[in-house]
Amino acid sequence: MSSRPEYIRDDVQEHDFGVVNKPLTMWERVYGSAGVRKLFILVMLALLWQGYAARLNNPLIFPTFGDTMTSFLQRVVSGELPQKAWFSVEVLLMGYGLGLVLALVITMIAMTSRLGDDLLETLTAMLNPLPAIALLPVALIWFGLGNGSVVFVLVHAVMWPIALATHSGFLGVSNNLRVVGRNYGLRGFTYVRRILIPAAFPSILSGLKIGWAFAWRTLIAAELVFGATSGSGGLGWFIYENKNVLDIPAVFAGLFTVILIGLLVENLFFRTIERKTVQRWGMHS
To answer: What pLDDT digit, counting tens, does each position of 159-193 carry?
Structure first.
């Protein structure tokens, strides 16, 4: 029995319930790549930067993108920017790692008892609104002019957003998963590692990203102050030093370096973790 012509679709073969896939056009393949779309956005932003700076025509206020790139490449070739960037990243990783460990510890304590939960809520309500950079004078008194002062404020900046995101993710785990874990006899850290962390990982990953961003902001701000005090530092000190000599393209080159490192970490590190965990576990749309 043949089908009536008006009910036959061009993209479906008769007696075959599968849809015939048409080959994608070149535009569809290009537009379907997230990397290409993001590159297009970056190019547009660079063109806007160049056009506005050229129209303003005041390099002491806003240098062009071309001048900034020239200064950036010169400082990279000389080795100054890589050295400053590595100094900052090294301190950042110390503060971020310590803050992450403390955040996970206090969150696991909060999940084990009501008193621990009240402790976390009280501490976050007290300390999370407190700007990390405001603690730098106290840190300088306690730890002196070494990296310990910067690491201290970084731990404060990182710890509370990660703890809040992780705790929120743990509370959002379904009761069915909790019951399954209990029925298998999982308790303590094993229960957290095998049940809570995988189920709450999207929230944990969001907290890690927020903590990383907060750490970068705090580090650069701390180095602007700390570098002026000790006469040394990383990217923050590089920006401060070039501002004093009115080398504004170099100042923007330092800011561009911070942005570039942020883009690399987001697209290479966090995106890889998301692909291997959240998307692989079917928790991402």
So the answer is: 988 988 888 888 887 777 777 777 767 666 777 77
CA angle, 265 as apex, 198 and 129 as ends, to 5°? 75
Indicate the burial class of 53 (C-beta count within 10 angstroms; 0-12, 13-18, 19 or more): buried
Q: Which residue has the tokens 């490192």?
A: 261
Q: Using alpha carbons, select from 162, 151, 175 the residue that is nearest to residue 120.
A: 162
* 18: DSSP letter: S
Sign of CA dihedral 141, 144, 145, 150: negative
Could you give the C-alpha distances from 236 to 88, 221, 230, 253, 273, in angstroms and in order? 8, 7, 12, 12, 28
The four Cα atoms 36, 255, 253, 96 give a dihedral, to 10 degrees, of: -90
Answer yes or no: are the C-beta atoms of 66 and 53 closer than 8 Å: no
Entry field: residues in the chain: 285
Q: pLDDT digit string (tens) for 73-122?
A: 999 999 889 988 898 888 899 999 999 999 988 888 887 778 878 888 88
Q: Domain 64-276 is classified in which CATH homologous superfamily?
A: MetI-like (1.10.3720.10)
Cα–Cα nearest to 227, from 152, 140, 141: 140
The domains of the chain are located at 5-35, 64-276
- Separation CA 234–CA 225 (nearest Å): 12
Question: Which has the closest alpha carbon to 235: 69, 63, 97, 75?
Answer: 75
The SS3 assignment for 3 reads coil
